[in-house]
Design goal:
314 residues; alpha/beta; Immunoglobulin-like; Aminopeptidase; 2 domains; four-stranded antiparallel beta sheet; binds zinc ion
Length: 314
């Protein structure tokens, strides 16, 4: 199978595959996706769920699910000297599952610059609130009538940040401040690194899951309180994965047990946080769901020692 992609100019890039589910990932430096559409790959039937957008500052990503065990044979960029454009040609071979699994994974020794390293830390005597605008970049979240959840939630986070900064002793950190993809794992890592006191993830996509109107506050639980919450958590994790997060080598049973213990200690504080937010919304007369307290296995709420909630504004 051969894929070609025309770009306005030659740019640095990398191409690789990921397993579970099988995906083809193309990363580009400084690519403007305006004018690129999903139909681009229409003839390549083995590719589905094509998505593209910002991934890291200065980098864009395109991810597609592979309809079979296709391994990468070659990826070459050629330049059209007259037009100044470039064509990326990717050749994939049909292979077997074992070969695919063996070759899948990001290129070795090629790590993204880690923005976590330069985060501000919590100051003594001050409260650090981490606001987490849902989705971003390649993962738009819910969309309706030209508006996307990722844009709405960033604007919403900015507004809350401004309000919170007026309070004495409160500092605020946003997990993303632009339209770039931030993995769920990284969001949690940022809260940890900054030694956050509170973590609030902001979302607005419950309606597509059949919730009634009004805000809900979600906390972490292995067993979801209701099917809509379970689906919401599942879909968020899936969007994260499809955007290119590599989950290989992340299941550590011992660490899980220890984390569960820590979470049990944090649980009462998380419940107080959820109550305070629901109470605050009530006082302000904000539209609230009939059953505002919900729980599900949201990956973004898995910081064991930081009270974390997901506010779904309905
Ligand atoms: Zn969302």
């Amino acid at each position: 199978m051969t894929l070609t992609l025309t770009l306005s100019q030659p740019v640095p890039y990398r191409v690789y595959t990921l397993d579970e589910p099988r995906r083809l990932v193309l990363d580009f430096r400084e690519v403007d996706w305006a004018g690129v559409s999903e139909e681009l790959f229409a003839e390549a039937k083995a590719l589905t769920s094509v998505r593209f957008g910002g991934f890291r500052p200065g980098w864009s990503r395109m991810v597609a699910e592979l309809g079979g065990a296709f391994t990468l044979r070659s990826a070459e960029m050629s330049r059209d000297d007259q037009r100044g454009t470039a064509v990326l040609t990717v050749v994939l071979d049909t292979s077997d599952e074992a070969t695919f699994a063996d070759r899948a994974g990001p290129p070795k020794g090629d790590v993204w610059p880690d923005p976590v390293a330069s985060l501000p830390r919590k100051q003594t005597g001050r409260v650090l609130v981490v606001l987490d605008p849902g989705h971003g970049g390649i993962d738009p979240g819910a969309s309706r009538e030209g508006q996307t959840e990722k844009e709405l939630m960033l604007a919403f986070a900015r507004e809350i940040e401004e309000e919170l900064r007026r309070l004495p002793n409160v500092d605020v950190l946003l997990t993303r401040t632009d339209d770039n993809f931030v993995s769920l794992e990284r969001r949690v890592a940022m809260a940890h690194q900054a030694e956050a006191d509170i973590f609030i993830s902001l979302h607005a996509d419950a309606l597509s899951e059949g919730h009634a109107h009004g805000a809900t506050v979600h906390t972490l639980a292995d067993d979801a309180t209701d099917e809509a919450s379970a689906l919401l958590a599942e879909r968020h994790d899936r969007a994260d994965m499809l955007s290119g997060t590599d989950l290989t080598g992340q299941d550590d049973v011992v660490a899980d047990v220890l984390l569960d213990l820590a979470r049990q200690e944090t649980q009462p504080r998380t419940e107080r946080l959820a109550k305070a937010i629901v109470g605050g919304l009530e006082i302000k007369g904000a539209p609230l769901n009939r059953r505002p307290y919900r729980a599900a296995a949201f990956s973004v709420l898995k910081a064991a020692d930081i009270p974390s909630i997901l506010l779904e504004i309905g």
